[in-house]
Structures are given as structure tokens and as C-alpha cells.
Amino acid sequence: MATLFCAAAATSCRLAFPLAVPAPAPGLGRGRARRGTVAVRAEAGTGINPAIRKEEAKVVDTVLAGELSKPLTPYCRCWRSGTFPLCDGSHVKHNKATGDNVGPLLVKK
Ligand code: FES
């Protein structure tokens, strides 16, 4: 099962990718379990989500990798996609406009 989660506060968001990082063996330290975690930070008061599902207190999506219809599915990490949580290529325009380097998370079936 693939699980993407965001524990977003106004200034911090973490995305974890357990598909790429296996769970640590019992008894291993917490530091090892955190490998593969990416932290995204926005300026205080601005947030990173400009418009997606702003009526929700927290935008959370769950994906079951075994139920994906395609062998490779891109998920948006730039918060600009018109098909969020799926990537629609809007990150290209965002990157050109801002000099950023964001791209999708590719989930393999
Ligand atoms: Fe957001 Fe592609 S549209 S990562």
C-alpha cells in the first residue's frame, strides 16, 4: 500500500514515500526510519498551496498502489495541478516562472 501524507501546518509540510523506503527492522533507530522523507517549507503566512481544496482544513489523499490503472502514475508535489493530486504538467510553467525545480512523485504499480 502506498501512503502519501501531509501533516501541513501553515509553515511546514512533510511528504513520506514508504514505497521507496522500506520500514526499518524492529529495534532500529528512528533516524533510519526517516530516510527518504522530504521536508517542504514555505514562508510564514504564505503556505505552499495557492488554491487546491482550500475549503478543507487539511488536504489528505490516500492511494492504494495495487489499484492504480497505469504502471506509472505521476502525483503532483508543486500544488499547481488542475488535476490534483495527479500531476498535469503545471510544474513546468511554475518552474519557468519561479526558477524552482519541483516535479511529480512517480508511483509504480
Ligand atoms: Fe505539480 Fe506536476 S503539476 S508536480
TrEMBL record:
Cleaved signal peptide residues: 1-16
Keyword Signal set for record: yes
Boundaries of every Iron-binding zinc finger CDGSH type domain copy: 58-97
Cofactor(s) recorded in Swiss-Prot or TrEMBL: [2Fe-2S] cluster
Biological processes, Gene Ontology terms: intracellular iron ion homeostasis; regulation of autophagy
Domain of life: Eukaryota
InterPro entries on file: CISD1/2, FeS-contain_CDGSH-typ, MitoNEET_CISD
A GO term for molecular function: L-cysteine transaminase activity
Keywords noted in UniProt: 2Fe-2S, Iron, Iron-sulfur, Metal-binding, Signal
GO cellular component terms attached to this protein's record: mitochondrial outer membrane
Protein's name in the database: Iron-binding zinc finger CDGSH type domain-containing protein
